[in-house]
């Protein structure tokens, strides 16, 4: 005999359309109300779903907002533009364009600020946003190695540390440029940033 929770999960599968509507409504509500006034009940109303539909999916506001931000960054793709430099420029421009969207700015700033006093929220940001987007660094490195632009790495632990550092450098620079300094991450800035990043990679490869 199936247990009750298993039967419930089987009988009421999640709706991708409902999830998308809820996450979009969360981002819209953050722009409209800000973090402090946002409630799950308001998001449910804005999304056109029952409150129980939302509560079955997310335990609270922190989890919901992080997932709403993560969905935006899942749009990032690493373009194949023929060279490592061009690939980096392409993905950084995508990242900057996402951060220029009002819902992305508001949502990301809100969860980062809230996470300074909430360790479980920091962990959810790491797993749902940071760790998921490190895929872009791994894809870019593998592609560059296949082209012969970067040497293969025999020390997997060192390679993992380098990949994490590259992600931190790229994400930190773009977030600081667009959200802290409030300056455009335009093509000229992205080209300059990429040159500096590649100089660092060349040094790391030669060391």
Automatic annotation (TrEMBL):
Q: Which UniProt keywords apply?
A: DNA-binding, Transcription, Transcription regulation
Q: Which residues form the HTH tetR-type domain?
A: 16-76
Entry's Pfam families? TetR_C_11, TetR_N
> Could you tell me which species this protein originates from?
Streptomyces triticiradicis
This one is known as: TetR family transcriptional regulator
Q: Does the keyword rRNA processing apply?
A: no
PANTHER family, per database record: HTH-TYPE TRANSCRIPTIONAL REGULATOR RUTR (PTHR30055), TRANSCRIPTIONAL REGULATORY PROTEIN (PROBABLY TETR-FAMILY)-RELATED (PTHR30055:SF230)
Q: Write the signal peptide boundaries.
A: none
The record ties this protein, via InterPro entries, to: Homeodomain-like_sf (IPR009057), HTH-type_TetR-like_transc_reg (IPR050109), HTH_TetR (IPR001647), Tet_transcr_reg_TetR-rel_C_sf (IPR036271), TetR_C (IPR011075)
Q: Which residues bind DNA?
A: 39-58
Q: Does the keyword Cell wall biogenesis/degradation apply?
A: no
Q: Which domain of life is it from?
A: Bacteria
A GO molecular function term, named singly, is: transcription cis-regulatory region binding
């Amino acid at each position: 005999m199936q247990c009750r929770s298993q039967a419930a999960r089987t009988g009421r599968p999640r709706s991708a359309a409902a999830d998308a509507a809820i996450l979009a409504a969360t981002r819209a509500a953050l722009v409209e109300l800000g973090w402090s006034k946002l409630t799950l009940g308001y998001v449910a109303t804005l999304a056109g779903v029952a409150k129980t539909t939302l509560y079955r999916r997310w335990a609270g506001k922190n989890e919901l907002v992080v997932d709403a931000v993560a969905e935006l960054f899942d749009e990032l793709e690493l373009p194949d533009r023929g060279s490592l430099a061009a690939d980096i420029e392409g993905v950084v421009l995508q990242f900057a364009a996402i951060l220029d969207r009002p819902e992305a700015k508001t949502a990301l700033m809100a969860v980062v600020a809230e996470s300074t006093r909430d360790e479980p929220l920091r962990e959810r940001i790491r797993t749902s946003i940071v760790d998921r987007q490190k895929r872009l660094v791994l894809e870019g490195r593998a592609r560059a190695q296949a082209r012969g632009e970067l040497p293969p790495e025999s020390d997997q632990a060192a390679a993992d540390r380098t990949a994490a550092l590259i992600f931190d450098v790229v994400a930190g620079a773009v977030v600081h440029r667009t959200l802290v300094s409030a300056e455009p991450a335009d093509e000229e800035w992205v080209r300059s940033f990429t040159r500096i990043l590649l100089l660092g990679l060349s040094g790391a490869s030669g060391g």
